[in-house]
Amino acid sequence: MKNFSQWFHDILEEAELMDARYPIKGMSVWLPRGFQIRKYALKALQELLDEDHDEVLFPMLIPESELAKEAIHVKGFEEEVYWVTQGGKRELNEQLALRPTSETSMYPMFSLWVRSHMDLPIKVYQTVNTFRYETKHTRPLIRVREITTFNETHTVHATKEEAEEEVKTGIEIYKQFFDELAIPYSICRRPEWDKFPGSDYTMAFDMIMPDGKTLQIGTVHNLGTTFAKTFDITFENDEGEHEYAYQTCYGLSDRVIAALIAAHGDEKGLKLPPVVAPEQVVIIPIIFKEKEDIVLDFTNKLEQLLKSNGIRTKQDKRDIRAGKKYYEWEQRGLPIRIEVGPRDIENKTIVVNRRDTGEKEFVDYDETTIVEYIKNLLDDISENMRNEANKFQEEKTYPVEKLEQVKKTINKKGGIITCNWCGQTDCGKDMEEKFDIDILGTQDADVSGECINCGNPAQSKVLISKTY
Ligand code: PR8
Questions:
Q1: At 67, is the secondary structure helix, strand, or coil?
Q2: Which atom of ligand 1 is nearest to the CA of 217?
Q3: Which pLDDT score, from 0 to 100, does residue 239 have?
Q4: Residue 163 to residues 56, 121, 123, 190, 245: CA-CA distances in angstroms?
Q5: 218 lines ligand 1 (CB under 6 A)
Q6: DSSP 3-state assignment of 113?
Q7: How many angstroms is it from 177 CA to the middle of ligand 1?
Q8: How many whole angstroms from 63 Cα to the centroid of ligand 1?
Q9: Residue from 174, 216, 249 to probe ligand 1 pocket by mutation (most atoms less than 8 Å from CB)
Q10: Which one of 191, 242, 377, 435 has the lowest number of neighbouring Cβ atoms within 10 Å?
């Protein structure tokens, strides 16, 4: 892919995912095909969250007085908040923020809900739209001003250990989710200067995009007791004393769909993992005049058989050239295309094409085994797509030992560099400036030796890249 930015821009239109012509910067329209992909991705995520979290829905507007309460948090978002100041022609007594995220909408309510340790833990999530007046260059799905698919989980616990455990749970849920969608990632702990405003620390997932820059695709934050102190979320312990609760929050956004598109797409267009494909199989009847009935009778039955077995199937009977249909379905990224013509029916075969490898196979047709065959093939496609994507992320992650290799490697190859680091803010910021790169964060590892930049003893492994 020569020019990823252009490719990404074009594919949204060509595969009928989004219309970016909406007349507000940073806001786009989800088209039916895009919306379906979003729907199946959310379904996969919600199934994982629902095991141990409850879905809720909070209002979109936050009173200024609540938003302003947590000083560090509000500082982090002050440049990005949209304000509602009027109702009709009347000025509001207090201006209301369009939520940039929901801590300050939820936590005053948590304060009312939590009385004793019996009320804990609270583990809730919601999928909502949030608004951030981003000043960096906006791009559909990647950096938007209306995040239309903000899935945020918020939890409250009686102990620090439980909150730590929940951070691990959040990471595990996201790992499973990204694995299901065949989205590769590296996980690290963000440096102090880049953690979520108000959190103790932030764990982040980053994916290497085809152009070599990384995209932050999800974050898990340990909030400690900072917000509990601000919003007075306390509980009475066994000894009758009031204690501050420990909190976590974690979130994903529209970026997951961007990652999905970017991780697998190629020159022919989209390539969708079966779990999110609006149709997993498309059947193309090859119709010749005299044999039309025979072919359609066969393909109608095949369509019904697959559908009744839970395989999302579409038959494309449009009166246009078969070649044009192949081209379109390839561009839309459907995992499997089946072609059936009169001669295939005579030979008791069907032609099965897989989008991931481009392979074509003549398959003996047997009504009793075809469903099993297609299901296995879908599994195989998922697995193959996951392996390919993970391989890309691994191959573009380079351990580096000498300082002069940092900039050279990133500029030449893109991707993520790993090296030894002292963990000091001054040293990290010095590297960011010197080499025009970003410190993604640290990974726990047994390191020995010196920091690649300042020569002090190394404390951890650090991940470095250029970022979106
Ligand atoms: C929180 N509070 O808010 P976070 N466009 C698209 N995606 C975005 C954008 C944007 N402008 N900004 C952020 N994201 C916490 C956790 C509730 C939930 C995506 O955390 O600010 C990024 O992938 O880190 C980010 O990791 C995720 O939303 C969560 O946002």
A1: helix
A2: 23
A3: 87
A4: 20, 9, 11, 18, 9
A5: yes
A6: helix
A7: 16
A8: 21
A9: 216
A10: 242
**Alpha carbon 237 to chain centroid, angstroms:** 38
Write out the DSSP string of 349-406.
Answer: EEEEEETTT--EEEEE--TTTHHHHHHHHHHHHHHHHHHHHHHHHHHTEEE--SHHHH
* 27-32: long-range contacts, CB 8 A cutoff, minimum separation 24: 27/144, 27/145, 27/146, 28/140, 28/141, 28/144, 30/148
Q: Apex CA 105: angle with CA 100 and CA 108, to 5°?
A: 150
Confirm or reject: Cβ of 147 under 6 Å from ligand 1. Answer: yes
CA angle 335, 339, 341 (to 5 degrees): 175
Indicate the length of the chain as a whole number. 468
Name which residue sits closest to atom 20 of ligand 1, judged by CA: 251
Check pocket membership of 49 for ligand 1, CB cut-off 6 A. no
CA nearest ligand 1 atom 10, residue: 143
Q: How far is CA 377 from CA 23, 191, 206, 336, in A?
A: 43, 43, 29, 9
Rounded CA-CA distance 180/268 in Å is: 23
Cα-Cα-Cα-Cα dihedral sign, residues 76, 79, 80, 82: positive
DSSP state of 191: P
Which pLDDT score, from 0 to 100, does residue 84 have?
98
State residue 291's pLDDT score.
Answer: 85
Give the distance (Å) from ligand 1 centre to CA of residue 363: 46
| pLDDT tens-digit readout, 57-114 | 999 999 999 999 988 989 999 999 999 999 999 999 999 999 999 999 999 999 999 9
Question: CA nearest 101: which of 127, 140, 131?
Answer: 131
Q: Which two tokens stand for residue 351?
A: 């032609």
Distance CA 326, CA 282 (A): 10
Residue that is written with structure tokens 């608004």 in the block: 131
The whole-number pLDDT of residue 11 equals 97
Residue pLDDT, tens place only, 370-384 = 999 999 999 999 999
In this prediction, the residues of the chain whose per-residue pLDDT falls under 70 are none
- To the question of pTM greater than 0.85 for the whole model, the response is yes
Alpha-carbon distances of 430 from 122, 459, 468, rounded to whole Å: 41, 17, 20
Task: Give residue 452 CA to ligand 1 midpoint distance, Å.
Answer: 31
**Does 155 sit in the ligand 1 pocket, CB within 6 Å?**
no
